[in-house]
Amino acid sequence: xxxxxxxxxxxxxxxxxxxxxxxxxxxxxxxxxxxxxxxxxxxxxxxxxxxxxxxxxxxxxxxxxxxxxxxxxxxxxxxxxxxxxxxxxxxxxxxxxxxxxxxxxxxxxxxxxxxxxxxxxxxxxxxxxxxxxxxxxxxxxxxxxxxxxxxxxxxxxxxxxxxxxxxxxxxxxxxxxxxxxxxxxxxxxxxxxxxxxxxxxxxxxxxxxxxxxxxxxxxxxxxxxxxxxxxxxxxxxxxxxxxxxxxxxxxxxxxxxxxxxxxxxxxxxxxxxxxxxxxxx
Length: 281
Ligand SMILES: [Zn+2]
Hints:
The protein is an alpha/beta fold. The protein has helices at 5-15, 27-40, 56-69, 84-92, 107-123, 141-147, 152-162, 186-195, 210-218, 228-239, 251-270; strands at residues 19-22, 44-49, 74-81, 97-100, 127-132, 166-169, 200-202, 221-226. It contains 11 helices and 8 strands.
């Protein structure tokens, strides 16, 4: 069932769990993500980063078709939407949500660009995610992990002025592989949850630690983006196989096995198992 991201996140906020947002870029990992969600009866947000598939219109057609046929609720989100044109292309491709990432712009620029795009997206029934503070990359964790955290009062103003449906916050996670140990600011997260009326999003779920993620889900994070860990699990599963005979023909199945197993693990951790609104055939 294809739904908006707002619907999934509003339900997660009430239910006190987080919906996984696996990073997907082709038909194989798309099918793996939806199958994992169906097997766990979990909602799922397909996260597609602009540019990872060379043909977003084609990707959108496959993703929306598979989502409509899924037994669980599926939203399709354009992750880290870049230019205005990229975001519009995502909407045209059928995405039910777009993230407008202006987290490296000034507060005022971030507000004005997000506000403009949110107005257009909402008019077409598409949800909007933005980011305030900045979730950096793991290699710069020593600096970004401390200096770019979300300010709660700014965040309240931001949500009010932009009318976004959910907000990605920087509370100590990073994208990719951490250089050093992740330190999540739980007190900051609690304050953000208390003050901000819309669901909160965590980027950089991979490598952040199961206990940390589970605690974040209980403290108000309603969506966790996952990429590196899923891709690594897929590759590790493939590398374990014997490909001396006909094994090479199973390449995509081996990749899917690893991807699915890791995603199912995270569905347990985030508490979204059983929340997918499973449809009967
Ligand atoms: Zn991200």
